[in-house]
User: What shape does this take?
Amino acid sequence: MSSTKYIFVTGGVTSSLGKGILASSLAKLLQARGYSVTIQKLDPYINVDPGTLNPYEHGECYVTEDGAETDLDLGHYERFLNTPTSQANNVTTGRIYQSVINKERRGDYLGKTVQIIPHITDEIKRKIKFLGNKRNYDIVVTEIGGTVGDIESLPYIEAVRQLKWELGSDALVVHLTLVPFLAASGELKTKPTQHSVKTLLENGVQPDVLVLRTEHDLGIGIRKKVALFCNVDIDSVVQSIDVSTIYDVPNKMREEKLDVTVLKKLKLPLKEEPALIEWNNFLTQHKNPEHEVKVALVGKYVELQDAYKSIAESLVHAGAANLCKVKLDWIHSEDINKKNVTETLGGYDGVIIAPGFGHRGIEGKILATKFVRENNIPFLGICLGMQIAVVEYARNVLGYKDADSTEMNEKTPYPVIDLMEEQKGITEKGGTMRLGAYDCHIQDKKSKMFEAYGKADIRERHRHRYEFNNQYLEDFKKGGMAPVGLNPDTNLVEVVEIPSHKWFVGVQYHPEYSSTVLSPHPLFVAFVKAALNK
Ligand code: GLN
Assistant: This one.
């Protein structure tokens, strides 16, 4: 195909309408029709990436194979499309300004005044077109973060206006809005949608397709009204009704023929009808479980479900693979103490200790891990969770009183988790962790790891500064905790297990970033299976 087509997904009326899921679902249908598709997120905040953001601010930070710290929507993109994303798939205002300012300092603008239009908008357009020009996708779906009318997103909307003008029928705007239902009068209301389309029009952008989030069926009357007031074809008014799982949305969008409308407008052949066979097999298994397990996720951001988004979704995928409903409870590590740990965790079939940073909630995680270890409950420790497992083992089994990670206690007599050599001397916080995919070799063919993956050489994504301190390697081996996975180049311990335990695995990496609907992550699948066998 000669030229890449660009689809922009904007949002109006309120945030949290699910632009990411809509973009993913549309892309899924186009992919199922035989097109190569990628999805990009433009975020209007000034942080260069979300790596420095507290999860309370922005939910989980998702890490790509190439080590980019990105918005959690990229997790949805990968989970839906089953293809990796990269740094180029997430662009923030901070990153745009950083590259413009770097160019200005180099003198690239040859004495010109550097302005939002054209310099910032040109940089935005360059980042959008990069995926088409350099990576050769047939279709690039670009999700514009925020809600139209926000001051922050204006340069992005302006870039979309320019691109629509330049690209003609090679570009298209899908605008997602809300049609609220007023219970008192029993009516669905279209006015917020009309206003939000007007806001887009004030910025020079006429949306081509409107997707309306609604709790109730819209009916033809509402669709006609919206079409009339917003200058769109009636078949370009698409209903997105609330569903029980995000994974239903591609089917819903197919019923609404969103993919057909979009392809016709982009003047692309429809190709084959999207079959979504494997996808629907997953949905059937997900909706018809034969078993149930109760899993506890112990973390410190439990008030905010977005903070551990990828872990929750990985358990959905792994549950379906085991024909099992995973009932996931989020447990605040600060609430766990010696007195209540048995009562709090006793009823679970499996426990996950979440990733994290800093002191808060650490002692609760250590108590939880001790309880789970002593009671033979399946355990999965992820990143900080693995480090906690090592500290707990050192203190309570090896007898190293006050053993710790130097992240928590720099003066510990037993620094069983310590800063990585390459991290010493690094002072800047942004983008400086050990990030992205690294190789891991599984040493022991009898390990739970090998059983789960079915192979010895794997590659997984990382985001950490501290590591297992190899000075203690022999002590742990002798004491019954096995370093079963090592990085082949650096010998960093990537995985620990307790062979005498029913199922106890701690991983320094983040398996949750690479679980998708069509490829559930083997470690989560094995964890759920172990929970099921408990
Ligand atoms: N805080 C730990 C470290 O930096 C663990 C990080 C994590 O859980 N992602 O090594």
Q: What stands out?
A: Residues 355-357, 383-384, 407, 463-466 surround glutamine (CB under 6 Å). The first strand starts at residue 5 and ends at 11. Residues 82 and 519 are 7 Å apart (CA to CA).
